[in-house]
Amino acid sequence: MNIVSYLFNKTVIVGFIIGILSLYAISRQKSDLHMLLLSDLVECAMLVVIAAVGTDLAEALILPGLVVGMAELLAVSEVLVLRNEIKYKKKSNEKSKLLEEFIAKETPPNINIKFGKMEVLYSSPKFVAFILVVYGALLTGFTGGAVMASGLLFYLLSLGATGNGISLNRLKNIWESISGFSGIMWAFWILFGFIGFFLYPQKYLYFLLIAGCALALKVGSKLGLIGNILK
Amino acid sequence: MFIDPITGNFYGYIPFGDIVFYLTDFSVIAFLVALFFTLVVYLTKPEKQLEAQINDFDKFNIVSLKELKIRRLMAIICGISTAFAMLTGDLFDYALFLAVIGISNIGIVSAVKKEWVLNAAYQYGIIAMISSLPLFGAAGLILAKTGTLSILELSKTAHDIFYQKIIYAVGMVGETGIAPFYAAKAEMFKAPGAPYILMIHLSSLLIIIRTAEILLSIH
What residues 38-97 of chain B have any CB closer than 8 A to a CB of chain A? Predict the structure, then answer.
């Protein structure tokens, strides 16, 4: 019994054990590159099995087997490289936008979330505007007018933001009425306040109160008009 | 004795160097079918493809000429090697033809530059590489046991090669038999320029029939 016949069974068993162990390793493997290398190891085990025959014909068979294995390895590795290129190109494209999370994205066509119908958008501006107007009325004077006006302005702006804009006719109405109201308050401030100081200096306190309140209402209504325009 | 009822009449063999081609009814018909579909692949123009869609207008896919050329080349290589795998009378040459068909299948699938398609091509390539162990290993084992690789010689007298035949069949399944499954997994039917993958299906079908014929002939 020559050495080739003696070693044939053992070599074949070793080749198949290498193949089966590589298959187990492939099944445990997460990395694509390692999977590729391990399957190349399986092809080497294939060469071991062929080489176990140990004749001239087997020597002639190893070369085409090796060439085919190399060709498959090259093809699959090219596929892997191309796939990773496409994968990472897509990822880098996604990340290329600066401050992407702050840019408004266009809403998907299928999702119709009506943001304007949220309850808090209707109830909260009235509440905030009411507090500001009351606080401005308590302050009186020019500062109170500014605070009150900011309340009105906030209310009108929030009306515009929720999509409940006022129609043009109503806008004209509001504009006229607020400017008229502002004019009347101006008259109160000048006539009853200022002139009252000179005519009745003893009762200056009432006239001061009248003038302060009228000034607050006047400035408030004037700045409320600005809110109408900005809307 | 078994070769006659399976493959039909035996017309002779072509002494083409080491590679012995032999002609029977089955191999000639399968060879002509494979060559005919290779010609169809060469002459057809699948770059204009209409994709039907539900609730929408049909989509018109256009494939670029560069992508088309490499896929056509791969499909033609696949068809030619399928045709000659039908004729060959050598187990190891048959295994080499299977490996070439496997590589060209990878080429056909991976020509589409989409991530999911390339993923399927990669997985198919891994399976094809792994299954070269049972395929070539079984050829080597048959050579060691019987001393020949010729199908004509192996079909004349009885040998005890049942397990080697099983391993050979497993290798064939891994190398080309499962290619249509990966084409389906990649949804290549929807990808642009899909008609070339019909060559994958044809070669897989013919190779499975031919392998069954070989495994029934040798004994």
Answer: 92, 96
**What is the full per-residue pLDDT of chain A (231 aa) written as tens digits?**
788 888 888 989 999 999 999 989 988 888 888 889 998 899 899 899 888 888 888 888 888 889 988 999 999 998 999 888 888 887 765 555 555 555 555 655 666 666 666 677 777 888 888 888 888 777 777 777 788 888 877 877 777 666 666 666 776 777 777 778 878 887 877 777 777 777 887 877 888 777 777 777 777 777 666 666 555
Q: What is the CATH number of the domain that holds A49?
A: 1.10.287
* B102 contact A CB<8A: yes
Cα-Cα end-to-end distance for chain B: 10
Closest chain A residue to B121, measured at CA = A79
Yes or no, beta carbons of A46 and B133 under 8 Å apart: yes
Judged by CB atoms closer than 8 Å, whether chains meet at B92 and A61 is answered as yes
* A93 and A10 part of one domain: yes
Measured CA to CA, the distance from residue A213 to residue A205 in angstroms comes to 12
Residue A114 belongs to some domain of the structure: no
**Contact with chain A for residue B139, Cβ under 8 A:** yes
The type of residue at A198 is F
3-class secondary structure, B46 = coil
Residues A138 and A212 in one domain: yes
ipTM, 2 decimals? 0.83
Structural domain total, chain A: 2
Residue A106 resides in a domain: no
* C-alpha–C-alpha distance, residues A122 and A71, integer Å: 69
Residue A152: domain span: 120-230
pTM above 0.90, yes or no: no
Which whole-number Å values give the CA distances from B209 to B14, B27, B184, in the listed order?
A: 22, 10, 21
In a domain, A210, yes or no: yes
A142 with A93, same domain: the answer is no
